Amino acid sequence: MAESTIVSNTANLSKYLKLDQKGSVIAEYVWIDSSGGVRSKCKTLKGKVSNIKELPEWNFDGSSTGQAPGDNSDVYLRPVAFFPDPFRLGDNILVMCETWMSDGSPNAYNFRHDAAVVMEAHAKHEFWFGLEQEYTLLGFDGWPYGWPKNGFPAPQGPYYCGVGTGKVMCRDIVESHYKACLFAGIEISGTNAEVMPAQWEYQVGPCKGIDLGDQLWMSRFLLHRVAEEYGAKVTFAPKPIPGDWNGAGLHTNVSTKEMREEGGMKHIEAAMEKLSKRQKEHMEVYGEDNAQRMTGKHETASYDKFTWGVANRGASVRVNRQCAQEGKGYFEDRRPASNADPYQVTGIIVETLCGQVEG
Ligand code: ADP
Ligand code: MN
Ligand code: MN
Ligand code: MN
Ligand code: MN
Questions:
Q1: Which end of the chain is more exposed for a tag (fewer CB within 10 A), N or C?
Q2: Strand (E) or helix (H) holding 169
Q3: How far does the centroid of ligand 1 lie from the alpha carbon of residue 215, in Å?
Q4: 98: helix, coil or strand?
Q5: Measured between alpha carbons, how far is 282 from 206 in angstroms, rounded to an integer?
Q6: Ligand 5 centroid vs 332 CA: distance in angstroms?
């Protein structure tokens, strides 16, 4: 559809994908780079993998990804989770990795490590997270997919959960990504077209603790990888188009064991009190350029001030009506931007509600 796309030759590719691998397994190692993007490279293994411990540590040139200086460029990849590979099929896998330095310290962009430490220390509260990942699809030229060249579509209104030509763009990419996630075992819980045309959302969760970050990062990898085959770019920018066009968020739904049980509402209220005291600290890790999105318009709250309310989409945190009626459930932190790191977001929430831990 887009003008100057380089799409893969899927007819030819499918012939080779069917070839017997003679018992070897391909493992695609995936990691997070210095700009919040994903990188990957693959490795042949001798046979089927059934336990994370069977996966060897590996490394890459950190000076090429902005993750290490040239004179000490090795960054180590430590596997933390693996998933069936929806592209190569068979016993092939995708491997989510943490990044580590040669002196045994976590890489500066390894935000999983600290999050895992704080979650482990507070494991008895059994945190669940469900994140709503919004994103925008762009053509090769960087303009939203399907928008008139050098122009704008009609104002927002018909696009949210839209059906029909001119109302939604790239349903084929969204559908492919959804199936790829399910195949990989990602707990994707739904998807919908968003308020701005070419903007979409999918949800991952509820997942327990650190699993949410692992799954969400792998789902982002899958989205970039699927969109590659259609010649579209994915942007997680929180305000891709300035003006009267909705931004993109990463609404974060949270509950603990205590909140889900009878009388849980008082634990949610206690959580609101704690969150209200750390607005600045949270906003610091809730994504780059989030101030452009958090204008108080377009279903967002103020950037500086913490507020919460039942069924209020203009508050920092929304408690849904069902939860308020039942007196138990979960809350929705609406502040994180679409480009936030889910490890940082879920990590600081556990820290604020349960206390800091020396890593
Ligand atoms: P919204 O109404 O804000 O659009 P969505 O339906 O898009 O909400 O997303 C809600 C998310 O909350 C889903 O990912 C869902 O899995 C998650 N969720 C549901 N129950 C819980 C819970 N008890 N704890 C944490 N997350 C939950
Ligand atoms: Mn080389
Ligand atoms: Mn949603
Ligand atoms: Mn949404
Ligand atoms: Mn939401």
A1: C
A2: none
A3: 15
A4: strand
A5: 21
A6: 7
First-to-last alpha carbon distance for the chain, in angstroms, is 49
Who contacts 346 (Cβ-Cβ below 8 Å, separation ≥6)?
Answer: 115, 119, 127, 129, 209, 210, 212, 213, 252
62-98: pLDDT as tens digits: 999 999 888 888 999 999 999 999 999 999 999 999 9
276 within ligand 1 shell (Cβ under 6 A): no
* Other CB atoms within 10 A of residue 55 CB: 21
Q: Give the rounded distance of the alpha carbon of 60 from its chain centre.
A: 23
Task: Provide the ipTM.
Answer: 0.98
Query: Which ligand 1 atom lies nearest to the CA of residue 203?
Result: 14
Residues with CB under 5 A from ligand 5 (ion): 132, 251
- CA distances (Å), origin 46, targets 91, 97, 140, 203: 11, 20, 38, 35
Locate 187 and state its tokens. 């707990």
What single string gives the DSSP state of each residue in 133-162? EEEEEE-TTSSBTTSPTTS--SPSSS-TT-
User: What is residue 119's three-state secondary structure?
Assistant: helix
Do the Cβ atoms of 244 and 153 come closer than 8 Å? no
| Nearest residue to 347 (alpha-carbon basis) of 334, 329, 359 | 359
